[in-house]
Amino acid sequence: MFKKRFSGMLFSIVFGALVFTTSNARAADPLPSWNDGKAKQSIIDFVEKITQPDSPNFIPPAERIATFDNDGCLWTEQPMYFQAFFVFDRVKALAPQHPEWKTQEPFASILKGDIKSALAGGEHSLAQLVMATHAGMTTDEFEKIVTAWITTAKHPKTGKLYTEMVYQPMLEVLAYLRANGFKTFIVSGGGIEFMRPWSERVYGIPPEQVVGSSIKTKYEVRDGKPVLVRLPELNFIDDKEGKPVGIQQHIGRRPVMAFGNSDGDFQMLEWTTSGSGARFGLLVHHTDAQREFAYDRESSVGRLARGLDEAASRGWTVVDMKNDWKQVYP
Amino acid sequence: MFKKRFSGMLFSIVFGALVFTTSNARAADPLPSWNDGKAKQSIIDFVEKITQPDSPNFIPPAERIATFDNDGCLWTEQPMYFQAFFVFDRVKALAPQHPEWKTQEPFASILKGDIKSALAGGEHSLAQLVMATHAGMTTDEFEKIVTAWITTAKHPKTGKLYTEMVYQPMLEVLAYLRANGFKTFIVSGGGIEFMRPWSERVYGIPPEQVVGSSIKTKYEVRDGKPVLVRLPELNFIDDKEGKPVGIQQHIGRRPVMAFGNSDGDFQMLEWTTSGSGARFGLLVHHTDAQREFAYDRESSVGRLARGLDEAASRGWTVVDMKNDWKQVYP
Description:
homodimer, 13 helices
């Protein structure tokens, strides 16, 4: 009698909490900043389908890899990639040590605030600016420079810190996938060492799960202390056809889910969704001029044309930011 | 009264199991294939020191990165790197499609079984052999080739599968570190795509935690199906000064522990143990001619000289395989 009552109480005390937690978790909306609709439902349906052990679409946790573009997918990329603002700020900060920049392009134009003229030289100008601001220091020094900038610099239009311009609905997707056994990776055209110093704090994505463009580094021992020196030499461009290459180099297996927003992500989604078994591709379509920016086919930053044309036939989800997202920034 | 008795029983039922588990885990030897001694103790002391939250040496789980060389550190590397046996076997398998190899060096010598002559041409010969056997196929095809070979090919001296020639004491270190919150990585001069197909099964190390040497790949769409084609062009050599470079590229933070066995690992250990806070470096010294192989300063494979000279002054642990390991292979 006592035994029975005791077991009953024990059961409800020990397992009652579990039952409550489970039903509570199931009832809670994992994506509260998403409006109910096809986009939100496609994410949830896919995750439920591949995590149920008795489903024919079940994917073991070790294979649950999800890749996310950064610019325009996890944070804003207008009116310019945020890393470009970093470059310009660094040129200004370094100018006193480079008196020759006053007359030397593309630096002279940057110092006058004339970005259009600075970039008139095309890729060559851009490469000069990137190398002058990203190379020549050690990896530890560069990390400190990025950290100091990212925690203080403000976006010219919103006045927010750049890390405050991440998308709340995508933060929820990252957390939801991780809660379902996924490893989440960034696969971005941006600089790998520009993202790593803050990706863990802001996105919960550790440095070892960041893939990006890079310059070469060289190991040196200076006064008995080893350093990695950043060289003014391109190592890898993680964009377009480069994204599947970068994914293979760093991750070594094909993702199950891929999230992007521009034609620079096309091949990543193509590679991901061509794998055998259940796969998922999603493009964020920037349709919200009021809360963020509206752009696609004609934009020089984050151009999205082929993705829009082929998403339906490839079974990719297209997010209509204006209608699918309740909230844009946290 | 009932309440008190009930809580007491509840406590012992619910927490009794935990107490038992904890003391049991503490009593169990995490490294049973290691003889008691300085090497074994140094590993355990380090892990205990950095995992205790109240210790001044505490390292948060996210930063617990441990890197392991593969050849000679996790598995045998004598009389040749195992990947060299793979190359020779592939040359033989591909020979019918390459009648010209009968007279063309270094292939002709390989086909005659004369490895010494085949390698007389030095790095150029080696590069020819590697590219002929590692490039030209897709990444998916190469994975299948490696998997077929590694599950059937036998070591010429022991007759064992190569994956049976992994070191039991090191498997225990890998498991012990993971149980203590570490992420374990391979950082090897060997081919990254040669290790990934079996690293998870054999070492519990997933593909995304394997760093190695690589050739370039190219993304292509063939008949509507995307592939990554392996090109006969070197991408990265993950050896000596390349190891800290590869660690930074793939992991993006400095390891806390590094394990190697040759001077090819010197810079990895130097880079790791020069970091601030508690750090750990270990070299496996091959001293066991009877159960494995004995070699160091004069060996062409896995040469270890500078590491032996400087280990003591740098505070690195040196494992004397003969005396420190109860058992070599599983």
